[in-house]
Amino acid sequence: MEICKLNADNLDEIVAKAVNVLKNGGFIIYPTETCYGIGADATNQEAVNKLYDYKGFRGQKPFSMAVKDRKMAEKYVEINDIADNLYKNYLPGPVTVVSNSKGGVAVGVETPWKTIGIRIPDHVIPIAIVTAYGKPITATSANVSYKPIAYSIESLLAHTPKKSQKYLNLIIDAGDLPKNVPSTVLDTTLNSLTVLRQGKDEFKNAIKKSNLVVTKVTNSTDETIQMGKEVANKFVPIHDNGPLVFALSGELGAGKTQFTKGIGEYLMVEDIVNSPTYTIINEYKGSTVELAFIHMDTWRIANHGEFMRSGLQQYLATSEIVVVEWADKYYKELEELVSEFGGKIVKVDFKYLDQNTREISVYENR
Amino acid sequence: MKTGEVKILAFDTSCDETSVAVVQGRKVLSKVRFSQVNLHAQWGGVVPAIARRAHQETIGTVYEEALRKAKCQIDEVDYIAVTYGPGLAIDLEVGVEFAKNLALRYSKPLIPVNHMEGHLLSSLALNSKGNGFISEAKLKTIFPALGLLVSGKHTELIYVKGFGEYKKLGQTLDDAAGEAFDKVGRMLNFGYPGGPVVSEFAKRGTLGVIDLPIPMEKSKDLNFSYSGLKTACLYKIKVLRESRLSEKDWVYDFCRSFVESVTQSLLIKLEMALEMHPEIKTVLVGGGVIANEHILRALGKVTKLRNKDYFYPLAEDRGDNAAMIGVAAYYNFKQNIILKSDSDINSLERNPRLSL
Hints:
The complex is a heterodimer. Chain A is built from 13 helices and 18 strands. By secondary structure, chain A is an alpha/beta fold. In chain A, α1 crosses α5 and α9 packs across α10. Chain B folds into two domains: about 160 residues, ATPase, nucleotide binding domain (Nucleotidyltransferase, domain 5); about 170 residues, ATPase, nucleotide binding domain (Nucleotidyltransferase, domain 5, 2-Layer Sandwich), CATH 3.30.420.40. In chain B, about 55% of the residues are buried. At the A-B interface, α4, β11, α10 and β14 of A face α6, α7, α8 and α9 of B.
């Protein structure tokens, strides 16, 4: 075991030593912006197996790996939209991004679910080593399992049993590191990207084929609620057949739920009309009409199947008054269902103008 | 706990994930969520956790796994319990139907449970070794209590006179606190669910760098509201993105400020409720947002300063789960809220808008 104190002049020399250790399947201890890490060649199966011995009991818990940049990461993983955002905005930095593997790394770095956790440390040492070595290295914290996170070499060695210490070939001592929390692991493969699915074109086309009933700029949530009330007053009294559906489209915070509160007020719903994002569908009893008032939100609905299984059809079949937020996501499906039950769709488009002002436009079929 | 306590098999399908648990008294013998059946090891502390809504396909598997883990046969179960609301009708139906069929087939009485009562009583759960935060002796002196339930769906203050005696003091007028977390996560392009990422990033941030409003700071009632904060975040993010700063220069501080705004909004209403009801002895918190340690501790500090007891669920019981449904069922059993005859069992229907 060699301990090298890092100073202004010996970076190149230390990097050369580290590369040599990695080549021979050995371990290095290196500083990062979070804590000291332990590096082995992430593509060397024998080295990674040995790392499990060093760490002690950790089950199947995988090791993340450090690369020098996004280009190097792309050799080993698929980068999806969510990961793309993280690479662009947060790396290099204290974030580990988990993506689907393309292979080429050792088992233990690649998980049983064929994913890899990747770090681009915001620290000159690991970046210089990975650049010189040309291959990714493991980026797990240097402490053995169930021991304190190491912010200094003294503390690391004090808490590392002798049988683990014998694995260490090179220790790069950069002194006491600031006590930053370990990197945040973000798994981008679990993200239901379909939640972000947009059916905007269908909604836009439907608007083009419709008549504009009213458009208005509201300057407060109260005005948005008031407009919902007025729009309900325009359509509810004259509606005679099938379900009456208000299809709402607009970005987060555009005022869709506030507008729906206004419709609820018109129907004299006694309960508080609040967001159905998590419940998907809220059902209320109105006082002015016999009908139930149904408030749906498709924001969390991941796909066509979930939309069709949401229970909306039952409500359409019994001809209720229905509000659907994020209606543009499943507009085609919604239109088909509503026409099947002989109902009417009123389209409401929300535009965010300023912190408090919204432009709200209401359309009906010609 | 003495071994003579009743065994209850509890189902919850009111949320994204199918969950089944076996409890004995308030001791949790097993609890299984669908994602745990197929995915064994995991990355440590990964966010977000996987969840999906497919109760019909998963409930049988989860049920078997829960019995297996509890080392228990269906014959040894005394009661079946099920969440019948609130939640999405079509999801609730799966659990209610499954539990009804099981109760009828094996001639077991059925205990209907309100999901919110589950969250409210989640801090009473004991682990499989019988350890927990509230002793039997303490339990006799916790009422009247104040429940604060904070999740993706709900943000509610409940006055608890005793078991089964609840009165809602306040609730959210628009978005729930947990929903605001996920929506802000979405604005920051963290995907869905982005709330846990916001919580994690906040740990790296500094307070006071970015200014966000505290929701309902001046309101005189005990209601909550998060849509204004959501809009303020949207605007602030837009301004920050148009500045020359790179996203990572502000995002951690932004998340920190957001968590603080939510924390303060909860603290203000908690203090107001304790002021309005000085006879309250205990604060019980529950719901997924309580998993945020910063919020959990801040609420506890305010409660303790007023010399009230503060109880919260074990880390693994803070989100939606059937264990808390089993615990709530146990107290329903003690109050004899039990469906015994076949016709009573058959008549149980899901109630999507069920409230405390």
